[in-house]
């Protein structure tokens, strides 16, 4: 039978937004749809991998034959990412993790006061993909970078700073692609490679990306 590019490999993928609770009924979040991460999970599964999809709250259905771990906060996404990490060969961080969370979660619903201005105190969330990349016996680690300018140079900086193996960079200032849209166009940036994948549907792009990522990963796994 045909050997697929990721046969016998375990792939963890983070997807969707995180929700950072303020009180029992409110949260801070973003408009990430999860489409790119879910499409990558299906493409990795179709390439023969065992896939664990760690997902924030999204409205799309869980892919078949993929282990789906549902989380809300960045901290929960980190915990789920570190669980079983020693068995993970390839980690792809496609989630739009909230950079900050409220310093504390109020036990009861926060009441409206008489003051016009209300201050929220936020604290930085852990960087999930950088934590994974710094782990002992780390998987091959792939991050995403959404930029509005100088896409490649910011991606190269991010690659070095977070100690990643590859970055999928997209220009979110371009209309009709990226965040919450059905299409995307990306540049795959490695330590000594730059490859542009032109605009297409996220499903199609995910298959192309998994092919390229698997090629880089298999090169790395050989050494
Ligand atoms: O630093 P920035 O948010 O631009 O980095 C984006 C990449 O880092 C994405 O792969 C995203 O999933 C990941 N990330 C993460 N944890 C965070 C912030 C970003 O895993 N707290």
From TrEMBL:
Gene: coaBC
Stretches of the chain forming a coiled coil according to its record: none
Function: Catalyzes two sequential steps in the biosynthesis of coenzyme A. In the first step cysteine is conjugated to 4'-phosphopantothenate to form 4-phosphopantothenoylcysteine. In the second step the latter compound is decarboxylated to form 4'-phosphopantotheine.
Family statement drawn from the similarity comment of this UniProt entry: In the N-terminal section; belongs to the HFCD (homo-oligomeric flavin containing Cys decarboxylase) superfamily.
Organism: Marinobacterium lacunae
Note accompanying the cofactor annotation: Binds 1 FMN per subunit.
Name of the molecule in the record: Coenzyme A biosynthesis bifunctional protein CoaBC
Any one cellular-component term (Gene Ontology): phosphopantothenoylcysteine decarboxylase complex
Lineage, highest ranks first: Bacteria, Pseudomonadati, Pseudomonadota, Gammaproteobacteria, Oceanospirillales
Span within the parent record: 172 to 394 of 399
Domain of life the protein comes from: Bacteria
